[in-house]
Write a structure and sequence with these properties.
This protein is an all-alpha fold. The chain has a domain of 61 residues. The longest helix has 26 residues. The protein starts with 5 loop residues before the first helix and ends with a helix.
């Protein structure tokens, strides 16, 4: 009928200990920031970099191809002027 407070007390104590450990870890990392060395990329990170790097390379290649194939338009001749000349 009534719940015993033991379980909620245990969970609260566990969460508080977890928060204390996380705070101690953050403090340690802040104090020793000059000693942190990044790990080399593992197999999964290298694979993800390759997957996400390829579409960007394809897009830049498409942009370069599209830029070389563009047609230049002479903006000095307005369509109104050519229509007026042809109507005379």
């Amino acid at each position: 009928m009534y719940e015993h407070p033991y379980l909620s007390q245990q969970l609260t104590r566990f969460e508080q200990e977890e928060l204390e450990r996380a705070a101690a870890r953050r403090l340690f990392l802040a104090e020793h920031a000059d000693q942190i060395v990044p790990r080399p990329a593992g197999a999964l990170r290298r694979m993800l970099q390759r997957l996400f790097a390829r579409p960007a390379a394809r897009r830049t290649g498409a942009r370069e191809a599209g830029a070389s194939a563009r047609i230049t338009v002479d903006r000095s001749a307005r369509p109104c002027d050519t229509a007026a000349v042809s109507a005379r």
